[in-house]
């Protein structure tokens, strides 16, 4: 639920947004100032925690957050490239990763049959909790707390639809809590 531009961000508006997300049965709520559910920070390109994060003990995980390139199309199909930096960028990327993990688990459930179906359903249910997502993130986390997504996702051949399907199920199984 986007905040109207004329409405200041404050605890009341934040509570309203959170309640709306809960009422809408959102699986992921991304707030770079959220209570300590899953704490994320951005590393510098050297891999060290960015200065504004402070101590590495202030975060559970790190995700790219320094000089992240984004592209968007402007008026007249002109491509604009921007570079973004900060823990809010890392938080947004981690929220997208969490959504991708949930999607993989949903595909696994949709494709499962027989004895696998209850396991896939339970796994999806667990992943929808902070503890379950922590378990999935812990599977990818390296010694520097960086979410090394290649540990779970590896490389996929985008031209082989059957391979992509197998890879999605493999990822969901690997990251299952």
From TrEMBL:
It comes from the Eukaryota. Keywords: Signal, Zymogen. GO terms for biological process: proteolysis. GO terms for molecular function: serine-type endopeptidase activity. This is Peptidase S8/S53 domain-containing protein. It comes from Aspergillus ibericus CBS 121593.
């Amino acid at each position: 639920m986007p905040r109207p531009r004329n409405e200041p961000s404050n605890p009341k508006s934040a509570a309203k947004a959170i309640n709306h997300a809960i009422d809408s049965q959102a699986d992921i709520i991304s707030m770079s100032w959220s209570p300590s559910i899953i704490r994320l920070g951005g590393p510098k390109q050297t891999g060290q925690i960015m200065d504004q994060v402070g101590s590495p003990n202030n975060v559970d995980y790190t995700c790219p957050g320094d000089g992240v390139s984004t592209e968007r199309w402007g008026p007249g199909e002109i491509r604009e490239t921007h570079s973004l930096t900060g823990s809010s960028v890392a938080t947004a990327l981690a929220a997208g990763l969490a959504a991708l993990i949930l999607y993989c688990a949903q595909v696994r459930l949709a494709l499962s049959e027989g004895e696998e179906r209850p396991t896939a359903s339970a796994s999806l249910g667990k992943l929808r909790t902070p503890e379950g997502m922590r378990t999935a993130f812990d599977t990818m986390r390296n010694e520097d707390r960086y979410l090394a997504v290649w540990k779970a996702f590896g490389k996929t051949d985008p031209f082989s639809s059957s391979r992509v399907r197998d890879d999605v199920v493999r990822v969901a199984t690997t990251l299952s809590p």
